[in-house]
Design a protein that fits this description.
Layout: E1 2-7, E2 13-19, H1 24-37, E3 42-47, E4 53-56, E5 65-70
Parallel strand pairs: 1-5
Antiparallel strand pairs: 1-2, 3-4, 3-5
Length: about 80
């Protein structure tokens, strides 16, 4: 099953959803979690393996894993 995770600063990560492309109800639930948690100030990345990470703007049901992270802030 594919996974949607949220990186929590200083607290590891939180599993938001798992989905199976063959089960539309799981895809819909994961897409809803993605829409709820990708807010201004956060970015989402499709993780395809070591060195194969890509920024995404929309939920991608073909991704093996998606990680939502807080935006990097500098000063």
């Amino acid at each position: 099953m594919a996974k949607l995770r949220l990186l929590k600063t200083g607290h590891g990560d939180l599993m938001l959803a798992e989905w199976d492309k063959q089960r539309p109800e799981t895809v819909e639930a994961a897409a809803a979690q993605f829409a709820e948690h990708v807010t201004p100030g956060r970015m989402a990345f499709r993780l395809d393996g070591p060195g194969q990470t890509r920024l995404i703007k929309q939920f991608d049901a073909t991704a093996p894993e998606i990680l939502i992270v807080p935006a990097v802030q500098g000063g």
